[in-house]
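FORM 12-B: Structure-to-Sequence Request
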């Protein structure tokens, strides 16, 4: 971690790395909750501890930051200027792990939706996507 971060930035950064209770995740929770769905959080017995779990529906949702999880959008393609090799390895590790988790969950019969941070820029579209996923 670069030493140029303030403690607050660092803690946000660590939250992003651990991927729990991040701002995008809270936004998705609020959205799904407002639709009337109830869910569990970060169930530790499931591969990847999905952010939102709908046990009776057999569905889970991950909320991923574009940078950390290497989304194909422009935010996911940003290349850090310092410690480039370190961050690259870290992010590729995340991406590989994400894929493994999705595969394992599907094998166990779960339906999986990944929501990307950048999708929150168009909340109406994201809401339609969430409704479709949860309803089907
Ligand atoms: Zn993205």
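FORM 12-B RESPONSE
SEQUENCE OUT:
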């Amino acid at each position: 971690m670069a030493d140029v971060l303030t403690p607050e930035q660092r803690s946000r950064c660590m939250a992003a790395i651990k991927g729990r209770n991040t701002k995008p995740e809270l936004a998705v929770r609020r959205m799904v909750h407002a639709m009337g769905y109830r869910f569990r959080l970060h169930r530790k017995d499931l591969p990847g501890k999905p952010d939102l779990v709908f046990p009776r529906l057999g569905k889970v949702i991950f909320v991923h930051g574009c940078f950390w999880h290497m989304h194909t959008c422009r935010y996911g393609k940003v290349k850090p200027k310092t410690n480039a090799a370190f961050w690259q390895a870290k992010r590729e590790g995340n991406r590989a792990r994400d894929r493994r988790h999705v595969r394992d969950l599907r094998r166990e019969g779960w339906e999986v939706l990944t929501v990307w941070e950048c999708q929150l820029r168009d909340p109406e579209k994201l809401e339609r996507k969430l409704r479709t996923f949860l309803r089907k």
